[in-house]
Amino acid sequence: MSSPSHGASAATVARYGEAMTAGNTLGTDTTGTTTTDAGATAAGALGSVRPAIRALAAYRPGKSAAQAEQEHGITEAIKLASNENPFAPIPAVVEAARRAAADANLYADHRATALRVALADWIGVDVDHVTVGCGSVGILQQLCLTFVDPGDPVVFPWLSFEAYPVYTRMMNGVAVKPPLIDHRFDMEAVGGAVDERTKLVLLATPNNPTGTAISTAQVEHLLANIPDSVIVLVDEAYREFNDPALGDPVHELLPRYRNLVVTRTFSKAYGLAGLRVGYAIADPAIITELDKILLAFAVNGAGQAAALAALESLDVIRPKIDAIVAERGRVAAALTDAGHDLPPSLGNFVYLPLGADTDTVYNHLERNGVVTRPFTGDGIRVTVGTEAQNDRFLTALDDAVSAL
Ligand SMILES: Cc1ncc(COP(=O)(O)O)c(C=O)c1O
What we know:
Layout: H1 10-21, E1 25-28, E2 34-36, H2 40-44, H3 51-54, H4 65-72, E3 78-79, H5 91-101, H6 113-123, E4 130-133, H7 135-147, E5 153-155, H8 163-170, E6 174-176, H9 187-193, E7 200-204, H10 216-224, E8 231-235, H11 249-252, E9 260-265, E10 278-282, H12 284-292, H13 301-312, H14 314-337, E11 349-352, H15 358-367, E12 370-371, E13 373-375, E14 379-383, H16 387-402
Parallel strand pairs: 3-12, 5-6, 5-7, 7-8, 8-9
Antiparallel strand pairs: 1-2, 4-10, 9-10, 11-14, 13-14
Helix pairs in contact: 1-4, 5-13, 6-13, 7-8, 14-16, 15-16
The structure holds pyridoxal-5'-phosphate (PLP).
């Protein structure tokens, strides 16, 4: 269905995908995460690669529809693997990006000043509380570079966003991973895992991949009981799909807890994943440090213009978000009716805890053209797509489960 970009053939894309997923298992870190030696042979011969990097596997993006089509000799595959927005950006946003692309011979504003001002205005904070980065994952990387020295503990409940252990290891930090209970964060265990040596606590809410969320009251309980030298990141990549009753950490907590950082993104609800625009709200003292290591011109001109246009078009975008939330409810209800026991998701995805059947069901779905994201031995994360895409997933899942 989707075609590979830049004119690359489907075969090239498929081979690239294989390379991305290759890697020999090396072992586990102190918290049980598998590490791999993906680049050892090639990189080992060239320079002295830091062991922390050498031990990392390449980032594995969700498999594309084109890769699945190539691998299985099928057509019309759909990708529900990366929590992308199924709706293309609205025309006003595309037009703003197109106009900015006409100036692509020039560097864009490194600080994305106009976007910072617009975000600050929209959120209701001073502009010195806002920074903009190359996706919210770019800001996460800046946070790790800013705060984590080798050996420093970084606490994050697990399962959670796969970038957390990667960036922790990149810094030679030590991942401390209190396990989820019933697919939810065990906030008492998170608090218990933090000590004065801890540099960062990473809390994705809603959590990827389980979809469960915590309230600002729970975050506050944590903040009130840990040293203020510990930076707490509340990663709200899926905020717009969340239950607003769970609160707003920016307004409820930031004025009182200067060690809080909140990240958000244009990738999910605003459908701009491909343009890489994320932002953080935090105390100016933290923003100043993060800005020092913002990659030069990290947010390109088209991304800045598109994000600004999105902020001006919220009345048009909001119904699309509502449609995704409604579809999430429909998919979850259908899965529950079919006998699945799934955690209540507040993101733009659902999580199916399939345990030992995970890989079998994932492979079956993929052979039938529905690409999802497997967490081997635990479950499958499925992005909420269009109504038609979701129906295809539900039918293929029925088929996969009957074949077990
Ligand atoms: C919890 C969480 N945080 C951050 C991100 C990164 O989003 P982006 O870098 O596109 O803003 C993701 C993407 O899937 C995510 O799931």
